[in-house]
UniProtKB/TrEMBL annotation, chains A, B:
Organism of provenance: Crassaminicella thermophila
Protein name: Beta sliding clamp
Function summary: Confers DNA tethering and processivity to DNA polymerases and other proteins. Acts as a clamp, forming a ring around DNA (a reaction catalyzed by the clamp-loading complex) which diffuses in an ATP-independent manner freely and bidirectionally along dsDNA. Initially characterized for its ability to contact the catalytic subunit of DNA polymerase III (Pol III), a complex, multichain enzyme responsible for most of the replicative synthesis in bacteria; Pol III exhibits 3'-5' exonuclease proofreading activity.
InterPro entries, A to Z: DNA_clamp_sf, DNA_polIII_beta, DNA_polIII_beta_C, DNA_polIII_beta_cen, DNA_polIII_beta_N
GO MF assignments: 3'-5' exonuclease activity; DNA binding; DNA-directed DNA polymerase activity
Keyword Iron-sulfur: no
Domain DNA polymerase III beta sliding clamp C-terminal residues, every copy: 244-363
Domain DNA polymerase III beta sliding clamp N-terminal: residue ranges: 1-119
Gene Ontology CC: one annotated term: DNA polymerase III complex
Length: 366, 366
């Protein structure tokens, strides 16, 4: 194999596929990146067997071939080369010589045949949606996935594809995030995608409205973004029937400026985090909501202007769960919907109905 | 005590004095910042008993007084407040109430009398030099101080004040950095300042040519930078007679572009750091210097254009010690001066004689 390509493009490609490479793997070949000529392009692949990332770059293919090189060392070397042509030549013994300007590296590689093949996902029946929309949907749900592995299905985000809409849902037993979008597609499907996969997808997605294509098999999902393809296993098992958790009615509804509430919550949480449970208390009265928290070292009293519809409310929350949602809601104002002091609170934007966030309260003592 | 001041100014002041506060201290009062009215100003003080930082800000002093508040919590709170007036009111029981816009915090403080007084340094016989010059001198020497504490005196930088010049010197047994500057001052002195102190000074110094005033006692040094004063203990003991270490002659002198050499060294060190000692080898011949390094995973060959005066050279170095110096030398070109393959190499800018860097070679086997 012998190829020539641009340093900057190669470095960026390594950077993309390196995300799937785990440094902790016990299988040495998985610490490497597969470089393989593919027509007039060079294909780079990284995988940890859970997720695989492929990226294609333009290159001058002088002779065909393939090799696996250490992701870390190759990445470091290419990143430090000047922005000029890079030549990579591989001999019969899997030694790769990398030449660029006044530099020449020789790296001992591994044979490409030992690199695991990524699962095959047939590219028919694409589900298409704009990259920036998917990016936003991931951002607004992924933080609500469970971190601990006691219920593995909750470490992923449920993706529900319907003919007229797409739903993404995450929940961890304390809160739930539901993002909906209206997309027409002739595909009905339902799958739970690991948060780790969506995290990597999110980094690759561009802030633009060109489509990403999604393909499913029973066990895998493939995201195709122009030059980059991400293949991941799906989480197995039945997702919780989330719809029945979300209350349909409320007794009190508060309308509040998102940034004001976020600022007050951030300050209140400075003391809340000194105590147990990050506990903050809301007192909702007429035109004012007060947010208070107590710790050994002191206390805080915040007041926020609101519009209240319904009854007064006294309720407690783990401030972290509120902050997570307020940080990713783009709308200027939100509704907070309450029923009783021990039933869930719903947070939603006032200007559209595409986002619903549910938080369980903390029971107040005394 | 009751004062009103601007949020942004107060936050920046806390940020400055907080640098002297250690979170690891066993003395609870040292986790605090002293706030004390001082004429029409508010004085903030942080100290870990080794170093103390005082900062003065303009404030409306409604009533005099002083208090000690947790540096971490106070810093977090003030940083999160809006950019408006902040009122701090302290009652007889050392409870501080902080009010700003719609926020009210109450923090339990500690009595100011329990806060340790900083050592007194009489402000006569100032040694003056421009802030940006001192900043540059610190940057070009501090990295060569010893990290391990086996010879405590080497964890500091020697400052030699003479009537016509100032020298700063650091060494750790493997390399030495000497920065000189021509400054006229009617003061002769010599002191070893802890690297930690100079690190903090460096953060406070501005990139401008207004003077910083330096005052010494036998045991302490005071840096006065307009609104901020830093007081530190000095390191005790005799510094090494560094002048006799620096060779006065050489057999070979190489002239080389600083950036080219830095680039090649950075790439070579990617493989050097995989092996022992970060070893890189230089081969100096006529118009070309080659830099090579070997590791289990591969090898690297870099070539750099040079002008050689004198004999060919083959010599090995720990690449880290070269990189440290090349990163902070501002000049476009440097001289490398060699005598034998086991004697020190001198690195110096070609366009002035204010900087001298010495590196011991690594003995090459075979």
């Amino acid at each position: 194999m012998k190829i020539i390509c641009n340093q900057r493009i190669l470095s960026s490609s390594i950077n993309t596929v390196q995300k799937a490479v785990s440094s902790k793997t016990t299988l040495p070949i998985l610490k490497g990146i597969l470089l393989e000529t593919c027509g007039q392009q060079l294909k780079l692949v990284g995988t940890d067997l859970e997720i695989g990332i492929e990226n294609y770059i333009d290159a001058e293919i002088i002779s065909k071939g393939a090799i696996v090189l250490s992701a870390r060392i190759l990445g470091d070397i290419i990143r430090k080369l000047p922005d000029e042509d890079v030549e990579i030549e591989v001999d019969m013994n899997n030694n790769a010589t990398i030449r660029c300007a006044n530099s020449e590296f020789t790296l001992i590689g591994q044979p490409a045949v030992e690199f695991p093949e990524l699962p095959t996902v047939e590219e028919s029946d694409a589900y298409k949606l704009p990259q920036d929309l998917l990016k936003n949907m991931i951002k607004q749900t992924i933080f609500a996935t469970a971190v601990d592995e006691t219920r593995p299905i909750l470490t992923g985000v449920l993706m529900e594809l319907q003919e007229e809409s797409i739903n993404m849902v995450a929940l961890d037993g304390y809160r739930l995030a539901l993002r909906q979008a209206n997309i027409k597609n002739a595909l009905n499907n339902k799958a739970v995608i690991p948060a780790k996969t969506l995290n990597e997808i999110n980094r690759i997605l561009e802030e633009e409205n060109t489509d990403v294509e999604i393909f499913f098999t029973d066990k895998h999902v493939l995201f195709n973004m122009n030059k980059t393809r991400v293949i991941s296993r799906l989480l197995e098992g039945e997702f919780i029937n989330y719809e029945q958790i979300i209350p349909k009615e409320y007794k009190s509804r508060v309308k509040v400026n998102t940034k004001s509430l976020l600022g007050s919550m951030e300050r209140a949480s400075l003391l809340a985090k000194e105590g147990k449970n990050n506990l903050v208390k809301f007192s909702v009265r007429d035109e004012l909501m007060t947010i208070t928290s107590n710790a050994e070292i002191g206390k805080v009293f915040e007041s926020v202007s609101i519009e209240l519809e319904g009854e007064d409310v006294d309720i407690g929350f783990n401030s972290k769960y509120f902050l997570d949602a307020l940080k990713i809601i783009d709308s200027d104002e939100v509704y907070l919907e309450f029923t009783t002091s021990v039933s869930p609170c719903i947070v939603k934007p006032t200007d559209h109905s595409n986002y619903t966030y549910l938080i369980l309260p903390v029971r107040l003592v005394g």
